[in-house]
Amino acid sequence: METQDLEKLRKEALVEVAAASPETIEAIRVAYLGRKGSLTEILKSLGSLPPDDRRSLGNQANNVRRELEEALNHRVQVLEKESLEARLASEAIDISLPGRSVHLGSRHVLSQTIREIEDIFTGLGYGIVDTREIETEYYNFTALNTPEYHPARTLQGTYYVDAPPVDEKQGRMLLRTQTSPAQIRVMEQQKPPIFVIVPGKVYRPDVADATHSPMFHQVEGLAVGEGITFGDLKGTLEHFCHKMFGPERAVRLRPHFFPFTEPSTEVDVQCIRCGGSGCRICSHTGWLEIMGAGMIDPNVFAMVGYDPDKISGFAFGMGPDRIAMLKYDMSDIRMFFENDVRFLAQFS
Ligand code: DAH
Is the pTM above the cut of 0.85? Predict the structure, then answer.
């Protein structure tokens, strides 16, 4: 046994340990340091050497043993670290991958339009009131100063409900043809000052076509108090039109007739497509009619027990279906109610 042999063994062993895998490392340890390992054999054979050689070779061999043990321990640690890292890498969850998208529904374009209208009026301090869709002749017509012989009261103008009347004064039950009966209900229940809007569904026996639907929507408005003038009506509705259609739009009031308002008016805004020069949407007039309005008729105040000499007010009624159609350049009202997702998704 010579120093060179020991050095050769040392080098070979270190090379093997450095390249050891988890499967081979134990065998390598045993091959060198096991009971019959080559280094163990060397250490065992030292006894047969002369004392001087024994000491120096023994020292060297022990150093090699320590070095090998350290190299083996180190290699074990490296292998454990590598295997941990490999596991972490293989089990990693890639949180940068886009998740599965969740398809959220969106608000119906009509609901969006009604909300927009509501927001404008709540911004002015108006409350939002909901009343009923099944009404009586009294609320839908009589109390609104609409006489018995009015054509809207015929079977062609109104859906009557096959239900016994509440009493003689209330007349027949019907699906409301307008949201205006809410005016009467609110005034019966509240005292002035009253500032409310009433969004809701209304019904008329029209055959569905591009511009008619047997069910559509209205938003009624009611402002009642002392000293409310036509100027207030004009200012309020101009404010609404500018918020809804843009501050640059001109607004005009055109004389009209409604049984429950006097004077009555229709409100036009400058065409939102052509700006007033005339186009298909505005039938080349430059104007779009968007609501009816007027000062509440003293006869209506009398119906709810208000003193028309002390109390005044205005009312208005608009069709959000029509407003949305104008705004989004739609040609067929039926699209609102067919629930074709390809249509609805355009407004999400
Ligand atoms: N109720 C009317 C209609 O359906 C619309 C209307 C016009 C409502 C004038 C009003 C109003 O409150 O003052 O045609």
Answer: no
Shared-domain flag, residues 17 and 46: yes
- Give the model confidence (pLDDT) of 120-170 as tens digits: 999 999 999 999 999 999 999 999 999 888 887 887 899 999 999 999 999
Atom of ligand 1 nearest to the CA of 261: 13
Give domain status of residue 164, yes or no.
no
For the Cβ of 261 lying below 6 angstroms from any atom of ligand 1, the answer is yes
Are the beta carbons of 223 and 192 closer than 8 angstroms?
no
Query: Are 127 and 70 members of one domain?
Result: no
341 shares a domain with 257: yes
- The pLDDT assigned to 292 comes to 98
Asked if residue 181 has its Cβ within 6 Å of ligand 1, the reply is no
- Let me know if residue 228 belongs to a domain: yes
Whether 53 and 114 share a structural domain: no
- Please give the residue range of the domain that contains residue 14: 3-90
Alpha helices in the chain (DSSP H): 3-18, 25-33, 38-45, 51-91, 109-122, 137-140, 181-189, 230-245, 298-303, 320-327, 335-338, 341-344
How far apart are the C-alpha atoms of 161 and 153, rounded to whole Å?
A: 13
Q: In this structure, what CATH number is given to the domain that contains residue 223?
A: 3.30.930.10
What residue spans of 202-274 are helical by DSSP H?
Answer: 230-245
How many angstroms is it from 265 CA to the middle of ligand 1? 10
**Whole-angstrom Cα distance, residue 173 to residue 165?**
6
228 and 339 in a single domain? The answer is yes
Query: Cα(249) to centroid of ligand 1, in Å?
Result: 22
Atom 12 in ligand 1: residue holding the nearest Cα: 316
Evaluate: CB of 292 within 6 angstroms of ligand 1: yes
Distance 316 CA to ligand 1 centre (A): 6
Task: Count structural domains, the chain.
Answer: 2
Candidate from 258, 267, 268, 314 with most ligand 1 atoms within 8 A of CB, to mutate = 258
CA 10 – ligand 1 centroid, Å: 105
Q: Is the CB of 178 under 6 A from ligand 1?
A: yes
Is 160 in a helix, a strand, or coil? Answer: strand
Same-domain status, 187 and 279: yes
